[in-house]
């Protein structure tokens, strides 16, 4: 028995040693080959793949198709699981990987039928664009095949990766539609509920089109409309029971928004070179959404022009998304135009929906979802002439969506056309025909010129208010076609020295009417960028990074002063907690720094005040629609400052005798929450405690034990909303770059996480510290560290 026990114990010990070693060797086997000659099917001539010390590839090919093949090859080697998740997210095919837990997400995605639409987009593409996608797909297959073992995520899932199709690249673009647009039109639905209960003057006051914090590039100004008088609306005449409960913590606040770009014309720089800066802010994960690359096409003969592209690619897509081609540099911010309408469906007794032309029956297409380990699930959709039925509103009325993403013509493969643009004018002319989620497109050229327009298709609507749901019986969402390219809003030098966008309102008047108000963010960040640019005497590349990293809280500085005045008045007295708060605020640096408790206090108080004021003004709406959760619109921040400055008693929560009392109540609630939530003095409750960046791998969300291996280390970071350095827990700058076209060697570009998605790769975290510390990394790849060559298999 002792010998048996010894043998069992020895066997267990051997397993304990061998299993981790075996797993390690398996995972290591999925690292890509980086050097030598690889013979592949699908290329017409040899292709070079040089990687630098950060893993950034320089791809060199003789044809655009071979360059696309090589792009697919390296994307698959480094990021295949990320690509797979993006296409599956858009197509509603995650349950095939993860089982029933992914069914709700898949069912929601199937509403949009993006797999069907992607096939149509591919079929509609011209032969050259389709050939590029097909070459890319072949390269993805070859890159995946170059790995000795399938990517480690599939080892954990015990599945083989599904092959990549050309249509999957279109699905990756559709995944960006889901990221950049509100596919549920929640803001429009909420405004519709407000409009049903509140008088128009109050609705316009609560959700104005602009505020004094705006910094539109065309110089247009907007102000919050005057507060309606007590004859129009008086909170103190409402049923007191509506105010019995204060605002609950926002379970689903307005999503974080933050992307910046700007351009400086050569007429303002010391050397006459135009500058373009871009920092797109997106959800932060591991690996990062963007993949750095340099794509070089070297052609033979004078009749064929080559390419030299550097910047950002999106794994799953063969084109350069943002960066420079040596002649022009370009970048984006999300436009937040009005790209979706809600149609409230009126039904007849037979269950048909009403239209001005008479009742119509619903379409009933069926989508089949494959579920790992379980039978397939059939999902029947309801469709209308406007789009799919997406549920019901707070009153139980069915709603249909008309979303720009559902229009096949709004998505295409024309982004590749920018690769050969030679100046600002040609780039702007291309922009209106490129099918992507509409973006603020900024471009600079090597002659020193700069320009702005909207990239993407813009629908032309009939004359109706598109900011709230419209009855199907009245015509629903009437779209009359596409805005002609000549009617797109545009701004350019020499009339403009600077151009900037930060998701907020960029233009006013007729130009804004064409774009629409789709819930664009508050303008304080754009204002801070504009003023920062104008303060520069001779802007340089280094100045661009300083603006991107600007964490001065100028907007919240206004609110710090309001709170200081409040605490310095009669309400201050000798209350110890208020005194400690005042001392913190008086010593504040004015920045959103990790070690600043004062910033955290101002931020928390401002948010409580904003929610409480909005809660009071919309109390009657919640009384009409019990259980509905309403979020303050972005522009309500401007309304709040007007309320505090004018202090109309009839728009004050009637449980408070004065605005001072109301504002002090929010400060006391904040202090009580800090006192109850953690031990220690107020000065230890720093902004860094709650602003700790957490960049996680999708696998670690399901298997937290792997987090130490897969995730980036948590780090307290400066920045927040309403300033150029937007930073939240899992949201922030997915890249930062600045470049002068033709002078790429002088630019910089850094990204969070690393180039590779493989945790055993030396490039899994390479460059992340530079992003954390805001240090410039050269825009172009560095010296060659690994050299591979793809040759046609004969």
* Class inferred from helices and paired strands: alpha+beta
The rounded distance between the terminal residues' Cα atoms is 63 Å
Strand arrangement in the largest pleated sheet = 1-27-2-3-6-7-8-9-15-16-20
> How many helix segments?
24
Q: Beta-strand level of the residues, as a percent range?
A: 15-25%
Helix content: 25-40%
Biggest pleated sheet: 11 strands, mixed
How many E-type strands?
Answer: 27
Stretches with pLDDT under 50, minimum 5 residues: 10-19
SSE topology sketch:
Layout: H1 2-28, E1 36-40, E2 47-51, E3 57-61, H2 64-91, H3 95-98, H4 103-110, H5 114-124, H6 127-145, H7 152-157, H8 166-180, H9 186-197, H10 200-206, E4 259-264, E5 275-283, E6 291-297, E7 307-313, E8 320-324, E9 328-334, E10 340-344, E11 366-371, E12 374-380, E13 389-392, E14 398-403, H11 424-431, E15 439-445, E16 450-455, E17 459-461, E18 470-471, E19 479-482, E20 490-492, E21 498-501, H12 509-515, H13 524-534, H14 541-548, H15 554-567, H16 576-586, H17 597-617, H18 619-624, H19 636-646, H20 659-677, H21 687-690, E22 692-693, H22 698-702, H23 707-710, E23 715-716, E24 731-733, E25 736-739, E26 748-750, H24 768-773, E27 786-792
Parallel strand pairs: 1-27, 3-6, 10-18
Antiparallel strand pairs: 2-3, 2-27, 4-5, 4-21, 5-24, 5-25, 6-7, 7-8, 8-9, 9-15, 10-14, 11-12, 13-14, 15-16, 16-20, 17-19, 22-23, 25-26
């Amino acid at each position: 028995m002792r010998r048996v026990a010894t043998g069992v114990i020895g066997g267990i010990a051997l397993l304990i040693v061998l299993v981790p070693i075996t797993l390690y060797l398996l995972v290591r086997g999925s690292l890509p080959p980086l050097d030598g000659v690889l013979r592949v099917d699908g290329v017409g001539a040899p292709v070079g793949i040089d990687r630098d010390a950060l893993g950034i590839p320089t791809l060199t090919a003789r044809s655009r198709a071979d360059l696309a093949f090589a792009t697919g090859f390296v994307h698959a080697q480094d990021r295949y699981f990320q690509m797979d998740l993006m296409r599956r997210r858009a197509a509603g095919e995650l349950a095939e990987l993860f089982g029933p837990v992914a069914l709700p997400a898949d069912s929601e995605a199937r509403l949009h039928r993006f797999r069907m639409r992607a096939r149509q987009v591919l079929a509609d593409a011209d032969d050259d664009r389709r050939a590029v996608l097909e070459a890319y797909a072949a390269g993805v297959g070859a890159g995946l095949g170059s790995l000795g073992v399938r990517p480690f995520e599939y080892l954990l899932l015990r599945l083989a990766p599904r092959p990549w199709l050309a249509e999957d690249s279109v699905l990756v673009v559709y995944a960006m539609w889901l990221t950049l647009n509100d596919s549920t039109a929640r803001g429009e639905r909420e405004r519709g509920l407000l409009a049903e209960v509140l008088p128009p003057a109050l609705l316009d006051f609560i959700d104005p089109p602009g505020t004094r914090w705006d910094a539109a590039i065309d110089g247009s100004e907007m102000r919050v409309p005057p507060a309606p008088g007590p004859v129009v609306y008086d909170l103190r005449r409402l049923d007191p029971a509506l105010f019995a409960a204060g605002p609950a913590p926002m379970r689903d606040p307005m999503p974080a928004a933050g992307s910046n770009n700007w351009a400086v014309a050569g007429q303002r720089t010391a050397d006459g070179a135009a500058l373009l800066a871009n920092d797109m802010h997106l959800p932060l994960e591991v690996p990062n959404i963007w993949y750095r690359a340099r794509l070089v096409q070297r052609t033979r003969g004078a009749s064929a022009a080559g390419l030299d592209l550097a910047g950002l690619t999106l794994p799953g897509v063969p084109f350069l998304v943002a960066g420079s081609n040596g002649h022009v540099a370009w970048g984006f911010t999300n436009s937040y135009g009005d790209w979706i309408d809600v149609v409230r469906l009126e039904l007849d007794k037979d269950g048909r929906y009403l239209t001005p032309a008479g009742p119509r029956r619903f379409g009933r297409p069926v989508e089949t979802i494959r579920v790992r380990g379980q039978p397939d699930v059939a999902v029947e959709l309801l469709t209308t002439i406007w789009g799919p039925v997406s549920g019901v509103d707070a009153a139980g009325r069915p709603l249909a969506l008309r979303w720009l993403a559902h229009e096949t013509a709004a998505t295409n493969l024309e982004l590749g056309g920018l690769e050969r643009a030679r100046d600002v004018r040609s780039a702007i002319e291309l922009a209106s025909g490129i099918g992507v989620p509409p973006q603020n497109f900024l471009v600079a050229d090597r002659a020193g010129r700069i320009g702005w327009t909207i990239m993407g298709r813009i629908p032309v609507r009939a004359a109706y208010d598109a900011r709230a749901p419209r009855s199907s019986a009245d015509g629903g969402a009437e779209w009359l076609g596409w805005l002609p390219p000549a009617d797109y809003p545009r701004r350019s030098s020499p009339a403009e020295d600077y151009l900037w966008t930060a998701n907020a309102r960029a233009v006013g008047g007729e130009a804004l009417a064409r774009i629409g108000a789709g819930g664009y963010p508050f303008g304080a960040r754009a204002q801070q960028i504009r003023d920062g640019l104008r303060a520069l005497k001779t802007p340089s590349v280094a100045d661009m990074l300083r603006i991107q990293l600007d964490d001065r809280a100028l907007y919240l500085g206004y609110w710090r002063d309001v709170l200081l005045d409040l605490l310095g008045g009669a309400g201050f007295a000798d209350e110890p907690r208020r005194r400690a708060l005042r001392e913190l605020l008086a010593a504040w640096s004015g920045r959103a720094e990790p070690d600043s408790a004062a910033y955290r206090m101002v931020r928390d108080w401002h948010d409580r005040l904003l929610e409480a004021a909005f809660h009071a003004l919309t109390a009657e709406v919640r009384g009409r629609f019990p259980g509905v959760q309403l979020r303050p619109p972005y522009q309500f921040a401007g309304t709040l400052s007007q309320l505090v400055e004018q202090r109309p008693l009839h728009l004050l929560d009637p449980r408070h005798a004065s605005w001072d009392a109301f504002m002090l109540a929010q400060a006391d609630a904040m202090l009580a929450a800090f006192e109850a939530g953690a031990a220690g003095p107020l000065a230890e409750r720093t902004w860094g405690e709650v602003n700790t960046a957490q960049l996680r791998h999708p696998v670690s969300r399901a298997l937290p034990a792997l987090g130490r291996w897969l995730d980036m280390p948590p780090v307290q970071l400066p920045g927040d909303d309403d300033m150029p350095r937007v930073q939240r827990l899992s949201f922030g700058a997915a890249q930062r770059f600045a470049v002068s076209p033709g002078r790429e060697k002088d630019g910089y570009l850094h990204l969070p996480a690393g180039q590779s998605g493989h945790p055993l790769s030396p490039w899994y975290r390479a460059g992340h510290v530079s992003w954390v510390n805001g240090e410039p990394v050269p825009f172009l790849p560095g010296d060659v560290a690994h050299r591979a060559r793809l040759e046609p298999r004969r």
